[in-house]
Structures are given as structure tokens and as C-alpha cells.
Amino acid sequence: MSPSVRLVVLAVFAVSALCLDLDISNQTSIKQAAAIIASGLYEYHNTSSTAGLFNQPEPWFWWLSGAGWTALIDYTAYTNDTTYVSDIHTALSQNLGSNYDFVPAEQSGWEANDDQVHWVYSALTAMEYGFPPLPCKAAFNNTVGNCTKSWQAIAVHAFEDFVTRWNLDSQTCGGGLKWQYDPTAKGWTYKNSVSNAGFFQTAARLARYTGNETYTDWATKIWNWSVTSGLVGSGYHVYDGSSDGDGANCSSVDHDEWS
Ligand SMILES: *[C@@H]1O[C@H](CO)[C@@H](O)[C@H](O)[C@H]1NC(C)=O
Ligand SMILES: *[C@@H]1O[C@H](CO)[C@@H](O)[C@H](O)[C@H]1NC(C)=O
Ligand SMILES: *[C@@H]1O[C@H](CO)[C@@H](O)[C@H](O)[C@H]1NC(C)=O
Ligand SMILES: *[C@@H]1O[C@H](CO)[C@@H](O)[C@H](O)[C@H]1NC(C)=O
Ligand SMILES: *[C@@H]1O[C@H](CO)[C@@H](O)[C@H](O)[C@H]1NC(C)=O
Ligand SMILES: *[C@@H]1O[C@H](CO)[C@@H](O)[C@H](O)[C@H]1NC(C)=O
Ligand SMILES: *[C@@H]1O[C@H](CO)[C@@H](O)[C@H](O)[C@H]1NC(C)=O
Ligand SMILES: *[C@@H]1O[C@H](CO)[C@@H](O)[C@H](O)[C@H]1NC(C)=O
């Protein structure tokens, strides 16, 4: 079971204890319960926002809206309920940016690699499900040779961003992606697990979907680095990150544990 499937099921159970009827042997019942959960999430969508945002209590983060849209793509794929397809298209389009990679001008100045990946997951998920493509753009055509493969093209653009950013920084710590990609941002001197795991996931899912070895090699390289840097410790304990500031060269890992 994929993590996203588990999430939906858990959400259904969590709410069923309060107010939902759910018969897990009855597909109609499952779909009805899932529809209630999905509309509960969708209620937070700010339809006045031109940045595809869900309103959330402060402090809110742009990446959470990316996660929300990915959940609605999952919902659409599991149920075939097309209620949200048009809004998913609009919101994701509003966040693509001029390079079609989820680096929109509206978020510049604070968007980091770990924020970007939460939107990239929506493109990877849409790609894998064969979700309806975005309107044709030459940029999609030029990247993957077929303008109907918008989701794959977007994921490839983000993958290429991460490769470029990794290579710019490979002189410290033997590689690794930094938390921030903007050199002026606080956190530029930190290589962290969530960013590298997002890059790993992007490479691994593209590898599986396309069979292209460039992605396989990068997934292996990111995994190897995550282990040799100590961010993934023995027994698969995953730690927060490591600094390359002031010559630290990732010599000491922040052991705040995430998994
Ligand atoms: C399945 O669930 C739907 C919706 O709750 C209900 O109308 C229907 O009677 C159920 N079918 C069976 C066989 O229980
Ligand atoms: C919804 O978005 C609009 C446009 O950006 C903004 O003015 C408004 O404050 C947002 N609503 C809430 C509840 O945040
Ligand atoms: C969704 O549609 C596909 C293709 O028609 C079908 O194979 C699948 O069973 C449907 N899923 C649900 C949950 O209705
Ligand atoms: C996409 O590529 C095809 C084949 O090369 C071409 O005919 C078509 O005009 C292109 N579309 C766009 C929007 O670039
Ligand atoms: C582009 O991809 C779509 C969907 O996979 C396919 O139906 C179509 O034949 C492809 N077009 C070309 C020119 O390869
Ligand atoms: C920094 O660390 C990497 C790998 O851990 C090592 O290969 C490299 O020599 C180190 N650089 C310095 C200047 O110590
Ligand atoms: C494999 O992926 C890389 C990176 O996106 C790309 O440059 C290359 O053209 C791809 N190769 C094929 C055969 O599609
Ligand atoms: C990853 O590490 C394995 C085991 O040390 C090694 O065989 C492999 O060549 C490495 N691959 C890459 C892409 O770094």
C-alpha cells in the first residue's frame, strides 16, 4: 500500500469515529466517505487566490497547499470523481513558474528545495496516474518530445534544477543538496534530509516511470550520499541535516530524528 493510500484510509477512519458511516466492503460507501473527506479539505481552498492556495491557520506554508493538491489528485484517481480536476489544473498551473518547474515568481525569496518538492510530488503523482494533461506548451514538447506529457516534463525540469544545484555545491560534503537554493537565504549552509529525500524521490519515480538510467544513477547517488553523510544512519534512522558553513564540511550531523 502506498503512503498516499494509507493516508486516505486513515483519514476516513479518523473521521468515521466522529460522524461518517463507512462500510469497507461496500465501494459506494467508501466513495461517499472519501468524498466527504475531500470536500472537507477543499473547503480550505481560497478561490480568490491567484496562487492556488489553501487557507490555513497561521503559520501556514506554501508547500502545504502543494500537498493538498496532491491529495486531491490521489482522491480523483481512486474514486474517478472528476469534481476537482479543473481546479487542480488551475492551481498547479498558477504555481509552475516560467520554467515549468514549480519555481513561481510569487514564492521567490523564501522557496527552498524542500518546498518545491512538495509541489513536484503532485506532478509525479499525476504522471503516474495518467491524470489529464495540462494544455500543450512548447516547453513540454521540447523536454519530453510530446506536449501531452506535461506532468513528466514538469518533473524533469525540477529534476534538472536539483542536479544543477547539487553540482554547484558538490565541492563541500562530497555532494548533497542544500536546504535553500538561494545563496542569500538563511539556511544556505545546510544540507538536509528532507531536500535530499525529495530529490531522491523525484529521481526514483522518474526512473521507474521512464526506465531512463540517468534517473536511476542519480537516485543511487543520492541514496549513497545520504548514507555516507550520516543523514540516514544505521537501522534507517533519518536525521535532520548537516552544515557546510564555516568549513564544517558536514563533519557533524544534527540528530533531530524524523524517521
Ligand atoms: C452501500 O453503501 C451505500 C451508501 O451508503 C448504500 O446506499 C448501499 O445500500 C450499500 N450497499 C450494500 C449492499 O450494503
Ligand atoms: C484569499 O486570497 C485573497 C487573494 O490573495 C486574499 O486577499 C484573501 O485574504 C485570502 N483569504 C483568506 C481567508 O486568507
Ligand atoms: C475508475 O475508472 C477505471 C477506468 O474506467 C476503472 O478501471 C476503475 O475500476 C474505476 N475505479 C473506481 C473506483 O470506480
Ligand atoms: C509539438 O511537437 C510536434 C511534433 O514535433 C509539433 O508538430 C507541434 O507543433 C509541437 N507543439 C507545440 C505547442 O510546440
Ligand atoms: C503523445 O502522447 C500521447 C499520450 O501518451 C499519445 O497518445 C500520442 O500518440 C503521442 N504523440 C506523439 C506524436 O508521440
Ligand atoms: C569534505 O568532505 C568530503 C566527503 O565527506 C571529503 O571528500 C572532502 O575531502 C572534505 N573536504 C575538506 C576540505 O576536508
Ligand atoms: C534521460 O534523462 C535525461 C535527464 O532528464 C535526459 O537528458 C535524456 O535525454 C534522457 N534520455 C532519453 C533516452 O530519453
Ligand atoms: C553507490 O554505492 C554502491 C555501494 O557502495 C556502489 O557500488 C555504487 O557504485 C554507488 N553508486 C553511485 C551511483 O554512486
UniProtKB/TrEMBL annotation:
GO molecular function terms listed in the Swiss-Prot or TrEMBL record: mannan endo-1,6-alpha-mannosidase activity
Record's keyword terms, sorted: Glycoprotein, Glycosidase, Hydrolase, Signal
InterPro entries for the chain: 6-hairpin_glycosidase_sf, Glyco_hydro_76, Mannan-1_6-alpha_mannosidase
Catalytic activity: Random hydrolysis of (1->6)-alpha-D-mannosidic linkages in unbranched (1->6)-mannans
Signal sequence segment: 1-19
PANTHER family found in the cross-reference section: MANNAN ENDO-1,6-ALPHA-MANNOSIDASE DCW1
Identification of the protein by name: mannan endo-1,6-alpha-mannosidase
Native organism: Friedmanniomyces endolithicus
